[in-house]
Write a structure and sequence with these properties.
The chain has about 160 residues and is mainly alpha-helical. About 65% of the residues lie in helices and about 0% in strands. The protein is built from five helices and no strands. Helix 1 (about 15-30) runs antiparallel to helix 4 (about 110-140) and helix 2 (about 40-65) packs antiparallel against helix 3. The longest helix is centred in the middle third of the chain and has 29 residues, at about 40-65.
Length: about 160
């Protein structure tokens, strides 16, 4: 008899998904640049988003580690984290990845990042976030349901 793995069964590690998409952005930019606003404005706004995203990611990761749970979605969740940035979003690390991706797309000043963000967000929603939500609901039950009713999924 097979037992279900103690993890959400996400389709891909989120940083890998965004990394692959970013490589595609760079290749497409090289082939057909499609600038957004010009290098000076794009660079300033892009770097600001990168710094913000790194700050949120560090805060979220440290919060999860301090709680004693796994950051990697392929490993079991050991505790439901509700503090730190998880007070504002149920997925602050994933929101940080979105900001990082947008920031880097602006730094290289190309619409390709915006174009590719849509399929990445679809994969994240259906292949990662909804799977994690089902897993956490099964694992933590009423505690997760209460948390979910009080804290937004995204920003």
């Amino acid at each position: 008899m097979a037992t279900q793995a103690d993890n959400p069964g996400v389709v891909m590690r989120p940083p890998l998904l965004y990394g692959v998409a970013l490589v595609v952005v760079f290749v497409l930019r090289w082939l057909w640049p499609m600038p957004i606003v010009g290098p000076v404005v794009a660079l300033g706004v892009g770097l600001a988003l990168v710094v913000l995203s790194v700050g949120i990611a560090i805060w979220g990761r440290r919060t999860m580690q301090a709680a004693g749970t796994n950051v990697d979605p392929h490993r079991p969740a050991t505790v439901l984290v509700k503090n730190g940035p998880f007070r504002f979003s149920r997925n602050p690390l994933y929101m940080a990845l979105v900001l990082l991706f947008l920031g880097l797309s602006l730094v290289v000043d190309t619409w390709w990042g915006i174009v590719l963000l849509f399929p990445v967000l679809i994969i994240m929603h259906w292949g990662v976030i909804l799977r994690e939500e089902r897993y956490l609901d099964q694992k933590f039950g009423a505690s997760y349901q209460e948390y979910r009713s009080k804290v937004r999924r995204y920003f």
